[in-house]
Amino acid sequence: MGVHWYPGHMAKAKRNLQKALKLVDIVIEVLDARIPYSSRNPDIKKLINDKKAVVVLNKEDLADEDVTFRWMEYLNKKREKAVAVNSLTSKGIEQIINYIDEIQGHDKGFKKIVKGIIIGIPNVGKSSLINQLSKKSSAKTGNRPGITKGEQWINVKKGFRLLDTPGILWPKFQSPDIGVKLAITGAIRDELFDAEEVAVGFINIVLKLNYLNKLEERYGLCLKGMESFKILEEVGRKRGCLLKGGCIDTLKAAGLLLKDYRMGKLGRLSLEIP
Known about the structure:
Elements lengths: L7 H14 L4 E7 L9 H7 L3 E7 L6 H13 L3 E4 L8 H14 L7 E7 L5 H9 L17 E6 L2 E5 L11 H10 L9 H14 L3 H8 L8 H11 L11 H13 L12
Parallel strand pairs: 1-2, 1-4, 2-3, 4-6
Antiparallel strand pairs: 5-6
């Protein structure tokens, strides 16, 4: 499955990030709660090095609660500070603020103004998170990857400034699965991959993680025992995705299925477990 996306501005963004990290005291790394492993840029860990950091599992409202809890346990065991957040409703924001306060209060080595940086892949909700942290719409938000074009400093609260950075993907995914999951969740622009292939990949995950009932409930279908492409066809048939002559428009069905998932219409559904 060939989902690859690494335009020139990504390489430049990575170089800029390396420079920016020298200016900050704390790193807020934003992951997608549905795919904490796949949405984590492996380069970032090396770049952060020994800086103080908090891992934010954003969009927790779209992920399976039990699975997110397992991810939190997993990260905490690895001695990583993790917080599950819904940046649209501000759930979990208080915990991030408390952590920043803790650093300001306890670490005598810190200056009066603590500087932070927010990093993550495209479309993971960094801008919405900043708006919640700073309680104002200071960052542009959009559900298309690549809205944040350059770095910008934002005053979050007294004594804390945050540097926003554009979303960074990495040149080569460790496995094809990662590319598929990034495409499913919208981190890669739709026009850069085959929607049918990605939708079938999504259905494979649904079958593997026992979420088939979510599709059955949403579309009013009985899908047990069917293979992935057949399920896509059934969804298309049910939703009237038809071509001339009554053939099923599987491309349209794929787009509809992915959109329903991204909008949370299939319920809380995680794509990977720790």
